[in-house]
Design a protein that fits this description.
This protein is α/β, with parallel strands linked by helices and 304 residues long. Helix 1 packs across helix 8, helix 6 crosses helix 7 and helix 8 runs antiparallel to helix 9. The protein contains 10 helices and 14 strands. Strand 9, helix 4 and strand 10 form a beta-alpha-beta unit.
């Protein structure tokens, strides 16, 4: 039986440093803590979906170096199916270093994309796509993502696109997207509009998805389905680590769809999951389980 949610996109070996504030150039600063973690929009989104009770699998390429070994084990720790991952020797993993600032609760990232060969879909990977409920993509592995989206569309599988980067060839993927979830920066940058509301409508006109959900961080976001435009809230919490909150939002939205929620309820559910995640350190380990989200939403006046 296929996994309900499958994903193609960046999978990143993150090294995180907790710092009191951002260091000035050419200085030294003592970190208050450090850790290694798995990252990447789709990869972390899949973990979120899994922790919320949905079966998930990652389709991609990893290196056999220490970073790749860590990433595969991290997937397995969170119940992600790794049987569709191709592992290659002699390559450098996609890696990043992040500084998590205590005084601003924000993060700064420096990354190295590594030198792994691009993903080329196998027959087994295509079958997994055909058997899924939903495909998550993030604009990385663009050629494979476009092919996967075509396979998904032909099989009646929904395509959710985490639009975070203005990558080359992005129109090819946007045109195959059912659930389009761009950041406000992406939405306005891609459409040349001046407001998130205008951007949502323009994206819908250009690509005809089922829904456009523009994320706006602490402001919540906007949902537009072609007829109705609504604003959904961000839940107020004491944030200690915002890294990965957008990735978690997308994974939670996918999980909400798999549970049969309508788009508005998916927005509220994903916003709640992302907020809870920000109250603890770690993009993946801080994702709550489903019951915790239900309780949190009830306490904030929302019923699922």
């Amino acid at each position: 039986m296929g996994k309900r949610i499958v994903g193609i996109g960046a999978c990143v070996f993150d090294t995180l440093y907790n710092v009191p504030s951002y260091p000035s150039e050419d200085t030294k600063m003592r970190a208050t803590g450090s850790k290694c973690a798995g990252g990447g929009p789709t990869a972390t989104g899949l973990v979120a979906a899994s922790k919320l009770g949905e079966s998930a699998a990652y389709i991609g390429v990893l290196s056999s170096d220490s970073g790749g070994v860590f990433l595969k084990k991290d997937f397995e720790k969170y119940g992600i199916d790794t049987s569709l991952i191709d592992v290659f020797d002699g390559y450098r993993s996609f890696a990043s270093v992040l500084w998590l600032s205590a005084d601003t609760a924000s993060r700064t990232c420096v990354f190295d994309r590594g030198d792994l060969p691009p993903l080329v879909l196998s027959e087994a990977q295509k079958r997994a796509l055909e058997e899924a409920f939903l495909l998550m993509v993030d604009g990385n592995e663009m050629s494979a993502a476009v092919e996967a989206a075509r396979v998904a569309k032909e099989s009646g599988v929904k395509v959710l696109y985490d639009c975070g980067g203005l990558y080359e060839g992005v129109d090819r993927l946007l045109s195959l997207t059912d659930i389009m979830i761009p950041s406000e920066e992406f939405a306005m940058g891609h459409t040349g509009t001046k407001t998130a509301e205008e951007a949502a409508k323009r994206l819908f006109e250009l690509y005809s998805p089922e829904v456009v959900v523009v994320t706006q961080g602490k402001l919540g976001g906007i949902m537009y389905d072609g007829s109705t435009l609504i604003h959904y809230p961000a839940f107020s919490v004491k944030a200690v680590d915002t890294n990965g909150s957008g990735d978690v939002f997308h994974g939670a939205f996918a999980a909400g769809m798999a549970k049969g929620f309508d788009f508005k309820k998916c927005c509220l559910f994903a916003s709640a999951v992302s907020a809870i995640k920000c109250t603890s350190v770690g993009a993946r380990e801080s994702v709550p389980d489903f019951d915790t989200v239900v309780k949190f939403m009830r306490e904030n006046g929302y019923e699922l």
